[in-house]
Write a structure and sequence with these properties.
Keywords: Acetylation, Coiled coil, Phosphoprotein, Protein phosphatase inhibitor
Strand content: under 5%
Order of helices and strands: HHHHHH
Helix content: 40-55%
Structural class: mainly alpha
GO molecular function, one term: protein serine/threonine phosphatase inhibitor activity
Number of strands: 0
Largest sheet: none
InterPro entries: CPI-17 (IPR008025), CPI-17_sf (IPR036658)
Family: Belongs to the PP1 inhibitor family.
Protein name: Protein phosphatase 1 regulatory inhibitor subunit 14B
Radius of gyration: 23 Å
Amino acid sequence: MAAPCSPESGPAAAGGTGPRVYFQSPPGAEPGQEEEGPVRRQGKVTVKYDRKELRKRLNLEEWILEQLTALYDCQEEEIPELEIDVDELLDMASDDARGARVKELLVDCYKPTEAFVGDLLDKIRGMQKLSTPQKK
């Protein structure tokens, strides 16, 4: 059985600042021996998604949140319940249909939304849907 983590071998000594998970070696296994188990396969789940597209989507969602807080003139937690589904917009046939859908979602907003809608349509142009992983 592996020895408990000591302060010298803990996260601070390894240069990390956050909590770490330490696994005990199974009985009979030599210390430092790598196992070809499920640990190696975990990475394959996210590899199928294009990381660049994921980053674009995250940046877009952060931008949308900033814009909505400005449009509704409130904090993030106070924004009315509304969901701008980018995949739904990407499925639509035209920018006119996309724009109409976003305006429909923002019907309760008292500030002008035309600039937001136009900027959003520009930002999603050329993006890919993320609801299904890409085939490798």
